[in-house]
Amino acid sequence: MSATPLLELRGIDKSFGPVQVLRDVAFTAYPGEVTALVGDNGAGKSTLVKCISGIYPTDGGEFHFDGRPVSINSPRDAAALGIEVVYQDLALCDNLDIVQNMFLGREKRSGIVLDEPTMEQMAAETLAGLSVRTVKSLRQHVASLSGGQRQTVAIAKAVLWNSRLVILDEPTAALGVAQTAQVLELVRRLADNGLAVVLISHNMNDVFAVSDRVAALYLGQMVAQVKTTDITHAQVVELITAGRSGNLGLADPGSNGTGAAPADTTPGAAR
Predict the structure, then answer these.
(1) Domains (ranges, CATH) in the chain?
(2) How far is CA 106 from CA 3, 53, 133, 157, 189, in A?
(3) Region 103-110 average pLDDT
């Protein structure tokens, strides 16, 4: 594991009109590690990921990638750095086969025709590099694949392009027990291959099974980012629901009985 984060965010702010969704967010992701990004619905997880991937512009803050300051103004900028996102809907086309899906929009050509042999070889090498053995044929249509196999294809598609940071949005949300185990094994393998992995999940069992660090968002604030071995299941739940657990989280739990800082004293809060 590297001592230098691959991705480091400092003081990220993001508002939509009068609503401030992210407030002074700091976040790090390390190569060779899985960082679990957790938080309740509305905590700002999706907004943060869309800022990292260049879909949303930020209102303030700094991005550092591989130790140097960078600007991410579009998905193209993120992809050029090696940042890939696998969204919950997977963005796969059922009527296309595995190879066609993995190269969708980035097809290899030989003259004016598609270079099918090269694409098939690269797809096979990527899946082999991830030790994927559940796919029988690269020419299967995605419509014929199970949920776990679809997730595998989506992840393989993300790492095909020399990715360095892969963000996975709820990769096991709709999977059964056996398929969940396969996907979690693949997630762990990505980190073992040296990639930085950000795992968004509401499933605490998944978080503790594969993550090296846990980053907890609460009402748009990053209230803690700690090693998984230094925190308990109960503490993570408290950080998600109240923004504080023992000496972790918000400095002032507030006086309204909810564990949240009062709105009129929260730095940067919308009024």
Answers:
(1) 7-82+164-265 (3.40.50.300), 93-161 (no CATH)
(2) 34, 18, 25, 11, 25
(3) 91
